[in-house]
Amino acid sequence: MTDTAPDPAPVPQRLLATATRLFAEQGYDRTSVQEIVEGAGVTKGAMYHYFGSKDDLLHEIYARLLRLQQERLDRVAAGDAPVAERLRAAAADVVVTSIENLDDAAIFFRSMHQLSPEKQKQVRAERRRYHERFRALVEEGQRAGVFCRDTSAELVVDYHFGSVHHLSAWYHADGRLTPRQVADQLADLLMRALRP
């Protein structure tokens, strides 16, 4: 018999890591709370101390990715670089961070409809804030004459994020393109679409 050391990670991180793995492997609806707590090595009481429900775990899986992306976008958007450089950096960053957290994104887009209506509303508001900050960069460039004004900024945002939201359907880690190459190519497509 071998002794295994307990996982030193904090309980919330263990629960999220286990839930992410199980939701990715089995699907959200086919994963029980019991499987999550057993996999994380905690009690149901410990889980409910941090997360009120399986729904809360699903929401947090996506929310942590969106928080990371929002922080990075805010930093890029507030920078001193020319607007074209800031937009390109933001466009590439959302691709890289989505690929680096592909399970989180895939789980969420497969399972968002299973969140409670209140949580769905909250997620849509969080995503809207991100998209509005991204759109503001497009509009800044359009006002400055750096980007063409013929295409609506909102359509440009939808175009780029349509690609980002479907990464989990086609991107494979063992494919011929690295995350950075995918990010650069998608960002370049966006920038070409905005040329005056």
Automatic annotation (TrEMBL):
Domain HTH tetR-type span(s) in chain numbering: 9-69
PROSITE patterns on file: HTH_TETR_1 (PS01081), HTH_TETR_2 (PS50977)
Name of the protein in question: TetR family transcriptional regulator
DNA-binding region(s) in UniProt: 32-51
GO molecular function, one term: transcription cis-regulatory region binding
PANTHER family in the record: HTH-TYPE TRANSCRIPTIONAL REGULATOR RUTR, HTH-TYPE TRANSCRIPTIONAL REPRESSOR KSTR2
InterPro entries: DNA-bd_HTH_TetR-type_CS, Homeodomain-like_sf, HTH-type_TetR-like_transc_reg, HTH_TetR, KstR2_TetR_C, Tet_transcr_reg_TetR-rel_C_sf
Record key words, sorted: DNA-binding, Repressor, Transcription, Transcription regulation
